[in-house]
Amino acid sequence: MLDVLTGFAIIFTVIAAGWWLAQKKVIGPGEQRLQLNRIAFHVATPSLIFSSVAVSDTDAFFSPVILVIAIATVVTMLIFWAISAVWFKQDAAETMAGAASSSYYNSVNIGLPIATYVLGDPTYVIPALVLQMAVLSPIVIAGLDRGASGLLKSVIAGLKAPVVVAAFAGFAVSASSWTVPEPVLAPLQILGGASIPMILMSFGASLTGEKVLQSQRLATTTATILKLIGMPAVAWGVASLLGLTGSDMYAALILCALPTAQNVYNYAATYRSGEVICRDTVFLTTFLSLPAMLLIAGVF
């Protein structure tokens, strides 16, 4: 459990560093801050994804736990869309931002230590990451990209995003059992190491502007509740229908209770759509997810 707390401490510390740098005007507002997101989106995060997925074991991709997570993710997104259609009356980009915030979880810098030290097995983290990047990211990016005209162009834009291409390429390498040469892999790992710090510092710097829950309160609160309570509840229902018990059920629920991924905020900041909902949901779920996961652990 100490390593899990360490994972949370790392996130909060880097966010605080970004906030402090913004206070000192080292990280400027607006376009200056967004340069961190763009570098992460186009270079650092794709490097992290490829270097992680390329060395993973593809057998875990076909686990029923991954199926439960996939269904729970889609169902939770649809629930947010339904609620939004009735209560929020947002445009498609804002609604997609909220739907992604309610279902797209942090599978790396919190998910990895959680899987390793709470579940005792990191097997499911990389397949879940590929599911997000290869399947969900194109959909989310298509919904956020207001500049793309038409559904087909939006989907194509999503599939061409660097993070998505990296996920497909990494999976292809892993499935072929090809070993990436060290002179190729090592630089990508170095670049990938910059991804999370840049995203988190930009996130922290964004907190110097509009305060959390200053606007979009209803949508943000809904996304937060769905992420921490709704998605695990859906996962429990799906897992029960599929006959999962014991450690498989526990793994599915814990992973579905992870906080909203910073990548959601990075996408929103890159495409300038739904930034407030994504930022605030990431902030709230990061603080509240630990009690939620401890509750699940206590029940099991």
UniProtKB/TrEMBL annotation:
Transmembrane regions listed in the UniProt entry: 6-22, 34-55, 61-83, 95-118, 124-144, 156-178, 184-204, 225-244, 250-269, 281-299
Main location (coarse class): membrane
PANTHER family, alphabetized: AUXIN EFFLUX CARRIER FAMILY PROTEIN, SLR1864 PROTEIN
Domain of life: Bacteria
Single GO BP term: transmembrane transport
GO cellular component, one term: membrane
InterPro entries (alphabetical): Mem_transp_PIN-like (IPR004776)
Keywords of this entry: Cell membrane, Membrane, Transmembrane, Transmembrane helix, Transport
Organism this protein belongs to: Corynebacterium lipophilum
Record localization: Membrane
Record-given protein name: AEC family transporter
Membrane topology: Multi-pass membrane protein
Plastid as UniProt keyword: no
Keyword Secreted: no
Pfam families per record: Mem_trans
